[in-house]
Write a structure and sequence with these properties.
The protein is α+β, with helices and mostly antiparallel strands. 47% of the residues lie in helices and 19% in strands.
């Protein structure tokens, strides 16, 4: 964005703040010195008994003094929701969950002026993702309305991420398992990473990769599992075990059928292969199907001939 120094007019009164959390001070512009991408402004502090004059960067002049009430209220709201600092593990997990489960047009994690605050754009869709009303999830959490969006504190960001994991655990746990598979290979064979100094690829040892896994990856995986809930983790692990066992038995049966064919028992091999394909248990067959009772007129008629030439229906 191109810096516009023309909005600073000599003689105008502005609100000055050396920091975001400092109180606003009323100043008058005495001179403006534009630069390539900024400006230096000489200001007179009107409420200072000594009439202090300073030369300050233009960025410290926040809003015209006529807008100071609304600006002070906004900054007070930002300070109010700045209630928690996420550690590195929480920070990374929140980023993964939002990327995986929450679209950007529903909610986004903000970095300025409050790190890890959440900006909720669409409450209805977020409630669908979380499986509960947003106000229920954020009960007691600091938040405020800002430009048709809801700004939520970092504590609320953690609650949103955890609720999303509880409602949709399988995608999160699938990612964790895939990352752990990759980490296992690295801890066995080492890896090739970008060097911090030369930016070139350099090989790492299995010991280094295991140290990396224990320090960075494992805490993140355990927190994501915790957010998903013990029951969801158990069900997911049982599902993975069942799928792996099914694949193992499928391969074993294929080897048995192949052995029967080589032994000359083609008929048994064909029967077992057909039965295996025909009677597979799938998500579409494991659920009981409840049909409505048929009217007698809908029941097909079968004719059976018995001894004596009579027909039975």
């Amino acid at each position: 964005m191109v810096f516009d120094a023309t909005r600073f007019i000599v003689g105008d009164e502005w609100a000055y703040r050396p920091r975001d959390d400092a109180p606003s001070e009323r100043v008058k512009i005495r001179s403006v010195k534009p630069k390539k991408s900024s400006a230096r402004v000489e200001i007179l502090f009107l409420d200072d008994p000594d009439s202090r004059v300073e030369n300050q960067p233009a960025a410290r002049l926040r809003v015209p003094w006529t807008d100071v009430a609304a600006y002070d209220l906004l900054m007070a709201n930002w300070q109010r929701i700045d209630d928690h600092v996420l550690d590195d593990v929480e920070d990374t997990c929140v980023e993964e969950v939002f990327q995986l489960l929450i679209p950007d047009d529903v909610a986004t994690v903000e970095w300025n002026p409050v790190r890890n605050a959440t900006k909720v754009h669409d409450r209805a869709r977020l409630a669908t993702i979380l499986g509960a009303p947003v106000d229920e999830i954020l009960h007691g959490v600091q938040r405020f309305e800002h430009k048709e969006s809801l700004m939520v504190s970092p504590v609320g960001t953690l609650l949103i991420a955890r609720a999303a994991c509880r409602e949709h655990p399988i995608p999160v746990l699938d990612v964790v398992v895939e990352q752990e598979k990759a980490a296992r290979q690295k801890c066995k064979h080492g890896f090739s990473r970008d060097s911090i100094r030369s930016r070139a690829k350099e090989d790492t040892s299995p010991e280094y990769e295991y140290h990396w896994y224990r320090r960075y990856d494992r805490p993140r995986h355990e927190l994501l599992r915790q957010w998903c809930g013990h029951r969801s983790v158990t069900v997911h692990e049982r599902l993975l075990a069942a799928e792996a066992e099914t694949e193992r038995l499928d391969i074993l049966l294929a080897r048995v059928i192949e052995a029967l064919e080589k032994a000359g028992d083609d008929m048994s091999a064909r029967i077992f292969a057909e039965e295996h394909e025909r009677d597979r248990v799938t998500p579409w067959t494991v659920r009981p199907v409840i049909d409505r009772p048929l009217h007698p007129s809908e029941i097909p008629v079968r004719e059976i001939r018995v001894r004596g030439g009579r027909w039975w229906h």
